[in-house]
Write the structure tokens for this entry.
Amino acid sequence: MGPAMVKTLRRFSRLPWQRKALLLEGALWLTLAWMLVRGLPFRFWSRWLGQQAEGEVELRAAGRDPRALEICWSVSAINARLGGRLTCLMLAMAAQWMLHRRRISSCLVLGTLTQQDAQHRPTFKAHAWVRDASGIVLGHQDEPYVALSSFVRCYPAREGETC
């Protein structure tokens, strides 16, 4: 075991048990997301992302659940320890599944950006991000991506409230 691994294990052992559990759960969901994205066509697993809608869906609920930021921290921290090898789609999928387990309304958004390269040819970039009722919680970009499709999981916070 190398020194970097020992340092990582020491840091992990000092974390509160809630954060350890979040990191372990995040690792599990990220592994599943990686296998699906790398191994199967989108049409086979996209239904697991939620109800599909066109464009970017604005959720109507009462404020941000603080657990959403903790979940997004966990998947981002794991990706950082892996050297940023996971895609934004894999991170968004794992985060949304973790939010879903806690019945926190969220929306996984798929967007694109078209730019020109040095030879003035159009280039295409894709990005995925996760929104909750208060805004983007994972995958914020400064570039103006155009939302093509959203996958929504909505849970009313109180009786009679809609998303």
About this structure: The chain is about 40% helix and 25% strand. The beta strands are 51-54, 106-116, 122-132, 135-138, 146-153.
